[in-house]
Structure formats: C-alpha cells, structure tokens
User: Fold these one by one.
Assistant:
Number 1:
Amino acid sequence: MQRFFIRCLSFYVFVALPILSLGQDNPALESARSTSAASISYQRDVWPIVRRHCRGCHSRTDAKGGLSMDSVADMLKGGDGGPSFTPGKADGNLLLEMISGDQPEMPKQQPALSAAKVEIIRKWILSGAKDDADLGDLTPKVVIPETYMFAPAVTSVAISPDGARIAAACRSELVLFPVEGDTPPERIPTECDLLTHVEFSPDGTRLVAVGGSPSSFGEVRFYDAKSGALIYSRRVGHDTLFRGAFSPDGTAVAVGGSDGAAHIVPFDQASAVKSFPLHSDWVFDVDWTPDGKMLVTGGRDKATKVSSVETGKLLRSVDMSAERVQTVSCTADFAFSSGLARTLSGFEFKIALSGIEVTGAGNGARPITNRAQYVRGMESQPGEVFTMATSLDRKLLAIGGAYREIRVYKTDDRTRITLIPNLPATVYSVSLNRDGTRLAAGGRDGQVLIYEIPSGTLIRSLVPVPVATTAGVTAS
Ligand code: HEC
C-alpha cells in the first residue's frame, strides 16, 4: 500500500503534473464551440487559449513586442504596434491579423491556432471583448499556508559548498537554514506552483530555485545565498521546468524542459536564454562537465545524451534505457544516468566521443565505437532512482530514489563507500558539499536529513516548515 502511494506521489510530482495541464483548455474550447458569440466569456473561453499559446512570450515579465496578454487591459494597451484590437471592430485588428491567414505570424514559430480557437477570439472581440475576469491578474494563485496540515514533500534540497547551509524546496516555497544552531528556517515564498530544483552556485554566493506552474510558465529564480534576497527571476516557456545544474563558472543554470529542450538561463539579466532541442520528450535533468563545455541530459524519451554547450549540437546519445531516465550527473571522465530501470552506468567520455567519427556514408554511417566499449557497469539500485548528485570536486556520487537507502560511490573507480539504510521515506533529492563530507537528502515525508560522509552518521533531521501534525515524523 505504502509503495503504491509513494509511486502515486512521485508519479504526480514528476510525471503527471505537467500532463494534467496539457489538455486543460479543452473543456472550455468544447463548450465555446457550441455557444453563440454573445455568450463567449473571456475567463472561460479566451484566457485558456491565451495562457496556453501566447502568454509564454507575452506576459508582464516577458513582453515580446512590448505586448503583455496577462489581462484584457494589457491587451487593449497593446505593444510596440499600439492597441492589439478595438472591441467590436473587425478591421485594423492587429491581434486577429496575426493569428489568421495561411501562415499566421503568431504564435511565433509554433503551430497555428486551430480555426475553432481563432473563431473564439474573433467572436469575443466582435462582441465587445467583455472582461469577465474575476481579477485583473489571472496567474493561478499559489497559496502557501502559514502552517501546513501535513509536511509537504521536499522536492529538492541543496547543501552549500562549505557544508554549512541548506536550501530546500517545499512545494511552492524555498526554505533556508544553517546546518548547525537553532536559527529558525527562513521561508521564501514563490509564485511557482511547484519548485523542482534548488542549488547553490559553486562559489556559494548565489542560490537558484527552478520550477513553474503547469501550462502557464517555467521559472528560474536567482537569490543572494546569504540574505535570501531575490536578485531576479526569469520565466521560460509555458510549463514547469525540471531539474538541472549551475554551470561550473556560476554564470548560468541549465535546466530541463517539457519541450524536450535543455535551457541555459544566464545569471546576467541582459543575456538571452539559450534553448537546445535535444530530446523527443521531457528533459528531466541536466549536468555540465567540469570544464563547462558539454551538457549531459536525460529524460522521458529514455535517452542519455552528451552535447556541446558552444554549438548546442548533439555529440552522442550515449545510452538508450529501457525506461525513463530521471537523473544524470557527470565528472570530467564519465557521464552517469539512472531512472526507472534501476541500472547505474558510467559512460566514459573519451571512448564514447571518439566514436563520433563515422565509417561509411549516408544510411550506412555508423559510429566506430560501440556502446559496450565505453560503458562501465555499476551496481543496480533496489528501486526507481529519482536523484543523483556529485560533490563539487566530483570525486563522489550520491544516489537515491523509491527505496529507503542512499548510496555513495567514488567516481574514479566507481566503488561504493557509503550505504545509508532504513530511511524514513522515498528520497526525491540528494546534495553533496564541495569535498563530499556532508550530504543532505529530502523526500516524500517532508524531512530534510543531513549526514556525515563517509560514515553515514546522521547530523540532523528536521521538517523545515511549520506543520500541524508530525504524525510518523520526528522533527528535531
Ligand atoms: C514564442 C514566442 C511567441 C509566442 C508564443 C507568441 N508571440 Fe506574439 N510576438 C512574439 C514576438 C517576438 C513579437 C515581436 C514581433 C516579432 O518579432 O514578430 C510578437 C508580437 C506580437 C504582436 C504585435 C505586438 C505589437 O504591438 O507590436 C501581437 C499582436 C502578438 N504577438 C500576438 C500574439 C498572440 C495572439 C499569440 C498567441 C496566439 C502570440 N503572439 C504568441 C513572440 C511570440
């Protein structure tokens, strides 16, 4: 029963959540198809289309062409080309022009809206573009309770490079606290429905929190690690972003997207986000090689890929798992990936990438090196793997998942040095400090656990947010 429940929850967090949102505009669409112009509602019929197809590039935080479509008022105000439409008028209607015709300009570089959706927008504008939104701002409201009924799962945890501080993602909030002492955790609310990744920059001065809201936006939030002050946040795409990693030089964060791309989001606000469409399905995790030159990515298409940061081009698909890949990591010499298939393998770059020269031509072209030559087998894990992390010096690799253990390996000879048994719950996230002497873990039961490595001695455990009931959980 418990196992089943754990599966359900992890499924919800990592798999179902984005799915749930995908068809969200359909009921409205169906109802709108059969309604007359007069009864088209902005809130019920138009907003779901705008939110799904336009708002990723036209919001107040990211207004392409100067146009925000967060509210009817914003649309009437318009962008660089003036008001996007005049209510009740068919002519001189910029917005309608841009979504109609043989090759509509909007949504930019994406499939055109269906005729039914264009018709809904057209009818709404012609019938006077009435604004029946409850609030001016229709971003789904995130509610963060003062006290939770039950501890929210810790979806991601990070330990600072010096091992002194912890950052944890508890659903929509980021929580910061020192490992030692009894300073109460600092709670930092976000507008993300779910945070999926938190991490300290390699120099320990910055903190990033990644997440988003389904069918609405992905978000990357940079904080000052010491004060917890938000430096800036950037919205990327239309869906919750998955996990990733800080670049070794700390100037950017690479994260996975539900659009099959790895997105490199720079710390410099003025620089553009680079998106590399590498996978045919959601990218669950991204890591950088220590020289910052290559990305290792893995995801729902079961592939583990190595690509060039400079060109964004695929260098090699190093592995094809039988099941989805949840997490990837790497060192200068190896890429590691794991997931539902429970296997853990190291892929030796030197040999794997030497095989990118091919013999033959066209359809006959084949890599010289075959997979068996560069795969370094490691022991299988007892259950689905959700999380993997290296120490900053990349000498140790920690791994955890839907089984109550955390295992730590040396990356050079891939031998196990630590096994922490009998954990209270499924582990969603592990993090190691710079030299791999401390490990933080977070999971389904909402606890953050901090251990000494290699001894595996528990230093501290706590639920970092206030909860009304701690049934089954001992907070300290
Ligand atoms: C992938 C990004 C993207 C998406 C999605 C997108 N747009 Fe745009 N839009 C742009 C950019 C960029 C511009 C600026 C002009 C240009 O580069 O073509 C723009 C400009 C516009 C303008 C002109 C603004 C002005 O005042 O000059 C309108 C109107 C517009 N978009 C409507 C829409 C609508 C309606 C949708 C959804 C159906 C949509 N866009 C989706 C990127 C996007």
Number 2:
Amino acid sequence: MKELRRPALLENHPGLLFGLKSCDDWRPRFHSHAREVCWQQRASTAARALTAAPPAPSPEKEASKADAWSSTRIPKSINEISNGENILGFGANLSADHPGYNDEEYKRRRMQIVELAKQHVPGQPVPYVEYTPAETAVWGEVLTKLEKLYPDFACKQFLDTFSLFNFRPDRVPQLQDMSEVLQQRTGWTIRPVAGLLHPRDFLNGLAFRTFHSTQYIRHGSNPMYTPEPDICHELLGHVPMLADPAFADMAYSIGLASLGASKEDCWHLTKLYWYTVEFGVIKEGEQLKAFGAGILSSFGELEWFQHGKGDQRPVFEPLDPFGKLTKMSYKDGFQKKYYVADSFEDLSAKIKEYATYLHNKNKVTSLDLSILQ
Ligand SMILES: [Fe+2]
C-alpha cells in the first residue's frame, strides 16, 4: 500500500486524533479507484480541512488553541469547558475530499446540528434532532453491518451493555436518551459538541464524567466511510462501553489525570486515551477482545486486530501508563501496536496511580480537586 505521509499539521493539532477510523470497506473501494484512503489519510483530510479553505482562523482563535495546550487551569465545573469554542476541525468546514464537500445541503444540515450543540447548556436536555429518512438509512446500514461482527470481536462488557440502548436500524438514537441510560448506569452524561474539541478540553470533560459527542451523521454517499467522528462512531463505539462501571471509572481516571497537566503530560494522556478508549484491547482468557471505539466502529480494524492481513499481524503489549507509548499510527491505516489490559479494574488502578504522580508533579492539590463540581 502506498505510504501516506503524516501531515505536519497533525503534530500541531492532535485533537484530530479524536476522530476515528470508522466502519469502512475502504480498501477494495478505493483500490478500485487507484486511490487509497485510510485512517491516516482521513486524519490528513482533517488536517487539510484546517488549511485548505477559508475561513482562515482568527488570531484570537489560534491563541485560544495555543492556550489550551499550555494552560493548566483546572475547570471547576463542566460549564467552564466550552463545547463550541475550541473546535479544531470539521464542523461545517469540510475538506475537498470529504464525501460531503460538494453537497451544500449536507453542509447546511451539519451546521444546523452544530448550532444546536453550541446552544446546549450542561444540565439541560440534549437538543432533539429530527433525523431524515436518508440519515436514518445511513445509521441503519452501519448498525446492521457492525452488530453482526460484535459477538466475535467485542469484549464481554460491550456485549453486556449493548442491549441496554435498544439500537434499531429504523431510528437514529437521540443523545438525550442515551445519556439518560448512562446516567442511571454509571452517572455519565453525553454532551453534544460542535466538532473536534481540543484534547485538553476533551480529556478534562472526562473528569466530570461527561463525554463530548458529535450529533451529526456521515455523508450518505458512502455509509461505510467517514473521515471524522459522527454519531455512528459515538453511539456504536463509545456509548455501550461507558455503561460499564469499570470501564467508565477507567475513562474518568484519564480525565482526572488531565487536570492541571502540563502540555507534555497532556500529550502523553492523549496517547493514553488513544490506546485505551479508542483502540484498547482486553484479555478474555486466551483471547483478545476489543473495547476501543476506534476498533468497534471499524469493520476493517475489527478484522485486523484479531486476524491481521496476509502475513502481517499487529503487535500486542501490556499497557503501562508510566511507560513510553508508541507513536500513534496515522499513515498506513490500522494500528501497528495495541496495548492490552488485563481488566478494567487493573487498568483503572494503574491510571489512578499515574494521575497521582502527575498531580504531584504538576502541583495539583487535593483542594484543587475537591472543589470540582
Ligand atoms: Fe472516538
């Protein structure tokens, strides 16, 4: 496969990593068009979305992004984390190779949903989105295809919680309904977001047991492909796992560790999030099962992590939050390395230990943490 260069811009906008490689049949499709599109290229797509088209970012906005990396201010409540200000990509600014780039109606529709998200106030119900029949068909196709794979590839916790959400192909779930299930199960809340949040904001949100979720859906021209997080990825990849108490506690631990973290530590936590919540793998007896949303929402990655391709296989290693985490794979599709958890309880304990280390290092006091709401 042609090697795709990692766009330099990603180094400066790692929030793009919070996108996904979602349900896809991209290999045959794009090979037949002499064009190779993969997760890394999608990240590249996202990067270009930041540069290719107007509007150019204002100096104030750029300064705000820079501040988000360097600022170690600890938000005292979820209200202090904006879900619409520090957006690194997407929203309505689609890159030229986004499936919806030339579809003005699609872009208008996205903006409609983005504006709803921006208006949302924490504590209030998530705005209702009346999904169109075309959007519902996209959701239904993705759900139908993925759920057939889950029994073989998904971890036990995912399979146990999946049925709580009563996913149906003829109805795109509302974030509010999903949030209410999570509230009852684990105390987590789903908050709509206008696009890709800065990693610090996103990670800080986890400390308030809040998961920032997109509400718009991928373009209907190819339901098996999206260059960005959309509601299919959020609901099928993330939400069922957040209904598991041990997983939810692990995700909370990452958020806790991010509070007051230095820029370098925040970047390490971005990778820790990547190799757990997005691409985590867990032992089940002699088998490895997926719990990361980036795997669970990708047809190709589900197959790859277990079976490899040809004579190629990914590498598996135990996860040590204190250790160096390998460079995230952007440029050639699936992850080359996955980190394996023994259990969510074990992972959570390790991450909490790491959080304590970071708090001591960054002089985050127990008083700082006790005033969080
Ligand atoms: Fe995700």
